[in-house]
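ugh ok fine here u go
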Amino acid sequence: MTQDILPGQLVQSTAGRDKGKYFLAMERNGGIVSVADGYMRKVQAPKKKNIKHLKKYNLVAEDLAQKLLEDKRVTNVEVDRAIKNLVVGLEG
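structure:
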């Protein structure tokens, strides 16, 4: 289920001290996903999470996903804003 996490996809931590927090997947390397929230976990120093400890949602920040795939610069403000917009979509 969690094996197909894409760059820019909304994920939620299910383990660790950040349990329950929302992140965007930045990059995937085998069973490890680099995640950032633009606030506590910056784009420059993403958190590396085991894929087993993430719950994925079928929501992707399309503009950021395109930038990540093209290796363009993504800012912390963009990540933070995208997460807030996607979470509102979940709840509303």
